[in-house]
Structures are given as C-alpha cells and as structure tokens.
Amino acid sequence: MNRAGPLVVVNPEDTLVFDCDEVVMKSNILIENVSSSTIAFKIKTNAPKCYKVFPCKGILKKGLSTTLKVKADDYYEAQNHSFMILAQAVKEEEGIPQVWNSSQDIQKIRLRVSFTKETSASESTVDDGSLKALTLENSQLKSELQDLVEELKICRIDTLKHQCELDREFNYPHAFSCFLLGLLLGIFCPYLFF
After folding, report:
1. Angle at 66 (CA atoms; ends 64, 70), nearest 5 degrees
2. pLDDT per residue over 100-132, tens digit each?
3. What is the CA radius of gyration of the chain?
4. How many CA atoms lie within 13 A of 1 on its CB side?
5. In what order do the strands lie in the sheet with 51-54?
6. What are phi and psi of 187, to 5 degrees?
7. Do 90 and 12 fall within a single domain?
8. Exposure winner among 10, 90, 134, 190, fewest CB in 10 A?
9. Phi/psi at 100 (5° precision)
10. Cα distance from N-terminal residue to C-terminal residue, the chain
11. Contact (Cβ atoms closer than 8 angstroms) between residue 58 and residue 92
C-alpha cells in the first residue's frame, strides 16, 4: 500500500456481536475517517442473505464518521460469517468507486460475527421462597376470580328472574290501562273539539 496510515478506524475492531435475547437482532458499526482526504467505503459479507446493512456504502469527508446499522434476519450458526469493510481515498467529485479490486490503496477491515445471550445467572435465578410465595398468591387470586365469576352468574340469573316477574306484573295492568285510555279518548275526543 502506498498510503502512510489507515484511512478509517472501525468500532468494533474485530467482532460484531448480536444479542440472541433481542426480538430484532441488530448491531452497529462506527466508521470514522481518520485520513487527510475524503474516502469512499463499502461493506460486504460472506452471508448476504442473513444480514441487512444500512448504509452499505458511502462517502466520508475528512474527520467525519457514520454509523452502519446491521440487522441479522435470524439466528445462524455464524462460525464463518464475517463482514469486510473496504475504504479508499477518492476525490469528492469522483463519488463511490465502481471497481474496488483494481486499486492497491484499499484498506480492508475484517469483522467476525458472534451471537451471544446476555442474560446473566443472577438475573435469571429466583429464590425458592419468593417463587413459592408468588405461586401461592397466584393460586389465591385464581380462586378469588373463580368465586367472583360464580357470584356474577348468580346475580345475572336473579336479575333476569326479577325482571321477568316485573314484566309479567306490569304488562297486564299497563296494557289494559292503555286500552281503556284509548277507548275513552276515542269516544270523548270528537265531543271536545266541537
């Protein structure tokens, strides 16, 4: 290579870690331009169907940095999975190079992939006393809920019975009263207006 030093610094430096406990497994890669010129970068992987990267290429001016968002589509046996970050000095007007293999002044950084579970033993351990107390409380609550459901059913049945009795008592005299009122109005109304 003809350049004096590195073009970019990458964080993480050697291993990209995905947490298997997360619903969406994602990780970030920070790329910082430490050169004295504008650089173009590109990221590649040997398992392109397994990962999505945004942005996968771009331009960074001197002193600037960017964060690449990497999402794993699913948990994989990632023994051989890796990412390769390519960086090359460019003139601003040139843009991103089309052919990365033709230049000898390309910085290549390899990142291995690792999947981990971050749950520690202390977080997942529950002492027996508190577990028994929670189980007992859960059983009591279930029993109380069942009793309340039964009481509610009885109340509904009683309410329906009472309503039916009221309807029977109220409907006959009410209907008869309405009939008599209508009959009287029909008989006497013609005489009231003339």
Report:
1. 165
2. 666 668 899 999 998 887 655 555 455 666 777
3. 39
4. 12
5. 8-11, 25-33, 65-72, 51-54
6. -80, -45
7. yes
8. 190
9. -90, -20
10. 120
11. no
Q: Hey, how many other C-beta atoms are within 10 angstroms of the C-beta on 41? A: 25
Among 74-88, 110-124, 141-155, the least confident range: 110-124
Q: Tokens 């990780």 appear where?
A: 27
105 vs 2: CA distance, rounded Å? 6
Average of pLDDT values for 27-44?
93
**Exposure pattern of 68-86 as b/e (b: 16+ CB <10 Å)?**
bebebeeebebeebbbebb
Q: Which of 22, 19, 64 is nearest to 41 (CA)?
A: 64
What tokens does 144 get? 């109380």
Q: How many residues does the chain have?
A: 194
Domain of 179? 128-192
- State the Cα angle at 35 between 32 and 38, rounded to 5°: 85
For residue 75, the model assigns a pLDDT of 63
- Note whether 96 and 28 are same-domain residues: yes
Give the dihedral sign, CA 16/18/24/28.
negative
CB-CB contact of 17 with 47 (8 Å) = no
Q: 103 and 16, same structural domain?
A: yes
